[in-house]
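User: Fold this one for me? It's tetrahydrofolate synthase.
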Amino acid sequence: MNTLNHIHKFKKFMSVSFNFSSVKYVNQVDYKMNKYKEAVEALNNLQSNAAYLKERSYIKSSYNDEYERTISQMKKYLVSAGITNDKLNNLEVIHVAGTKGKGSTCAFCESTLRYHGYKTGFYSSPHLLEVRERIRINGEPISHDLFAQYFWYIYNRLLKDYPDNLPVYFRFLTIMAFYIFLKEKVDVAILEVGIGGEFDCTNVLERVPVVGITSLGIDHTNILGTTLREIAWHKAGIFKPNCKAYTMLQPRDAMKVLMQRSRERKTSLEVIRPFVNIEENGRNIPEVFSLNASLAVTLAYSWLKTVRGLNISLKEFADHPATKKGLANFNWPGRYQVIFLDDVNYYMDGAHTPESMEICVKWFRVMTKKSTRSRVLIFNMIGDRDVEKILINLVNCNFSKVFFVPNISGRNNTTDNKIKDINIHITKCNTYRSLWIKLLGCNNLHVDETSIITKYSVNDAVMDISNKPYDCLVTGS
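Assistant: Here's what I get for tetrahydrofolate synthase.
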């Protein structure tokens, strides 16, 4: 007994000794994490994208006024951050706009170029878990330390020059991305447009050798217009003189505008068709991913041919082992992703337009067609969208439970994904709940209001269904 007691005392002593010797390291880690958390807090206190877009939607201005408020102002911010026009023009960029599939197309393109041996930068939005996911080097989110380091450098410079007019959230991150890609000396940066194209802050670039336009649809109508012609005009705003532009088959009205704008901008525009087959570990992936991958491979090939003098055919490039590895190892969490956790099968896809939700529902039905489990829906939608047109795709999925939740992971969440005025978002979720009940009634479907629930956070919904055999679709934005 005494022996065991001494052993336990010795183990405790060794543990204390080890912890004492590593205090300095632990303190360094804590310090770095605190700097990161402080950076995220400061970032979240900038004007949000939603507030900025709502403000802009009420402003009807001329082209020159809009350009001055967006692109010209962005140039001033960049100079304040130490990024001159000459420096920015030294950055090799592949620029991608579109309504649907921008993120996956960029991710496919980045992965392809990385597996061909190039140091890549990748700027995308939104993030899934942490804001640093938006800025990646060689496929990996920048570290907490680097994020904090670069954030505070840029923040303090901008605060000095623009104390009462700091950039909004997305614009600030775009400045950060440009600065980081230049400092980290990437070979090529793949940039996903935020909203539209013509007046998007990523469009401050003047020299872009290769651009892509993914599938077009109706979205952000308060900013971009209510017709495909208007939306296509904005998306084509990323066309640059003498650059190579690629798109996929588009609705007739949209294609006419893209062709017209390519002529105006002296840009060569080519329409690609799917030629890449995507298989992800034998799982069923919607055909649209093959189309996005085909556009991505074309963009990567065009950049290598234009900038690096690649001298093989597109087919040879697509069949190259590095290209195939890049596509096979492509990772885009939150898009047609399946996670098995606590006896629940979670099917996740960030569909946020009627068209993308239709594809999402087809994928979910295929994935669960042999399942005997009950179905659950977890849904939210941000921004100013016609949610009824999106939800109508989901009402016939026979969900036994439906949760409407804001984009908050848990009740103690104070860092990333911070949402101000939570009551506003809960009210929105209650509106979606009422809309869901209405749609069920209109489609002569059974309505059990006790199974249609608004929750405070995602965790609350997850806790409600954990350890029960459900197939749960998590979708929206």
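One thing worth pointing out: Residues 337-476 form a domain with the Protein-Tyrosine Phosphatase; Chain A fold (CATH 3.90.190.20).
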